[in-house]
Amino acid sequence: MSDSHSTLIIGGAFRVVNGKYYVQKRSWEMLRIFSDQMLEPVFGMLRDQNDDTLAYPLPGTVQIVELPNAFGKVKLINTVFGRGLTPDIKRVIDTCCVVYLRQPLWECWDVFKYARSKGKKTIVSYHGDWPDALRKTEAGVLRHIFNICLAGFIHHTFKNMAWKSEIAFCVGEVLQAKYGVFAKNSVVFANFLHASDDIIASRSLRTAPPYRILFVGGFEKYKGVGHLIRAAAILKQQGLEFSLVLVGAGSLEKELRALAKSEGVAENIEWMGYIQYGPELMNVYRQADIFVLPSIASEGMAKVLMEAMTQGVPVIATDVGSSRRLLGNGEYGVIVQPADELMLAEVISSVLADPDIRTTYINNGFQLARISTKEKQAEIVRAGLEASVPELIGTPPYLRSVD
After folding, report:
1. pLDDT single digits (tens) 1-29
2. Per-residue pLDDT tens for 223-282?
3. pLDDT for the residue numbered 400
4. Do the beta carbons of residue 368 and residue 190 sit within 8 Å?
5. CB of 231 within 8 A of CB of 344?
6. How distant is the alpha carbon of residue 400 from its chain centre?
7. What percent of the chain has pLDDT over 90?
8. Is 51 exposed, middle or buried (0-12, 13-18, 19+ CB in 10 A)?
9. In the chain, what is the straight-line distance between the N-terminal and C-terminal CA atoms, in Å?
């Protein structure tokens, strides 16, 4: 590892099986938008041996250093006050020339403080809005007050990191307006992972029920899956025949299953579990008649919307983060207000009932997908890196080793 050209990349999680590193493919491909432009990337990741979604094998030339996690009150306090780093991670920071921090991640703060104390250049990218999610989380009075205070601290921290870094990359214009404006230089990009060849040429429409309504994402509060389940209950009461296909995993799965049962739609829901990014997931998209992203907070520019478009699926998204901008204020998909279950049900029903509207959104989505490939995002990222930290530019070992 060179002292003058290595970059420490903070983000993601891994596990070790039989001496080999495994990660989530989607997370890895997002990191590669940056690491593919770097001569000597070293990945600082959280280790989680119990996460079965970490199933994508990494090339043997990828270097990983374990990042100490901030889980638990004591660890979190140590991280906030800059006392959470191990000697191993400090040694990597000491020998690298640049540190890249992918937010939101608690552990980034500790790494950032130590790196700046050692005079290291830092790059930061913002992919979600934790403060927004905390402010909108339903809680009791005391918990709500705590969340508001914590959101204020995180917001200040994000601004401070942008201000002191060489460049800030922001997923969508909304995050740029919140944090990128404080940076020396800021760039808007997206985490889109598709190539031109991944976009299907055409698709046929299902014109009669039962329809397939799809969600792909985490089962967490800010994703709003509970609102989608309640909207599904309204659709069922109205007599629509459908299956609600839920792809993902998360802390709320048990709660959401109970909600589906109490709302009387348990038999209408297909729980697919977590599916790695790739052909199997794309096949699930292609089987859907409509895609819904019901988030209530924390979105940057949701890549699942673009994934649906590449497979010819019309999309509905709540007006959160940069979704409205991505969907061209309604040109590429339908925008609804967050947490409005009645409106969501009405829009789902009206779009499914009108083949012409679906065809228009499908064709418009194809057009947007063709100009929004991962190669385009890589060009945007590389130009920003070359302008701010040209010393790290190069071809990483895991690409140099490919024949």
Report:
1. 445 689 999 999 999 999 999 999 999 99
2. 999 999 999 999 999 999 999 999 999 999 999 999 999 999 999 999 999 999 999 999
3. 81
4. no
5. yes
6. 28
7. 80
8. middle
9. 22
Residue 388's Cβ-side half-sphere holds a number of Cα atoms within 13 Å equal to: 24
DSSP string, 275-342: --TTHHHHHHHHT-SEEEE---S--SS-HHHHHHHHTT--EEEES-TTHHHHTGGGTSSEEE-TT-HH
Opening angle at CA 322, ends 100 and 337, nearest 5: 140
Domains of the chain, start order: 6-192+374-400 (3.40.50.2000), 196-370 (3.40.50.2000)
Residue 210: asked if its preceding bond is cis (omega within 30°), the reply is yes
Q: What is the dihedral of CA 248, 204, 336, 326, to 10 degrees?
A: 80
Q: What is the mean pLDDT of residues 344-364?
A: 97
| 3-state secondary structure string across 140-177 | CHHHHHHHHHHHHHHHHHHHHHHHHCCEEEEECHHHHH
**Which residues pair with residue 100 across a beta bridge?**
9, 123
Q: Are 235 and 351 in contact (CB under 8 A)?
A: no
Residues in the chain: 403
40-98 pLDDT per residue, tens: 999 999 999 999 899 999 999 999 999 887 655 545 555 555 566 888 899 999 999 99
Q: Which of 75, 86, 146, 140 is nearest to 111 (CA)?
A: 86
Q: What does the pLDDT read at residue 133?
A: 84
DSSP 8-class letter at 9: E
Residues 146-179 as b/e (b if ≥16 CB within 10 A, e otherwise) read: ebeeebeebbebbbbbbebbbbbbbbbbbbbebb
Asked if residues 79 and 50 have their Cβ atoms less than 8 Å apart, the reply is: no
Token pair of 268 as six digits: 């209408």
**103-149 pLDDT, tens per residue?**
988 888 889 999 999 999 999 999 988 888 888 887 788 888 998 99
- pLDDT score of 375: 95
Task: Decide: 311 and 285 in contact? Cβ < 8 Å.
Answer: yes
Side chain identity at residue 202, one-letter code: S
Question: β-strands 98-103, 56-57: how paired?
Answer: unpaired
Token pair, residue 117, equals 């104390």
Q: Return the amino acid letter for 382.
A: R
Choose among 293, 215, 229: nearest CA to 265. Answer: 229
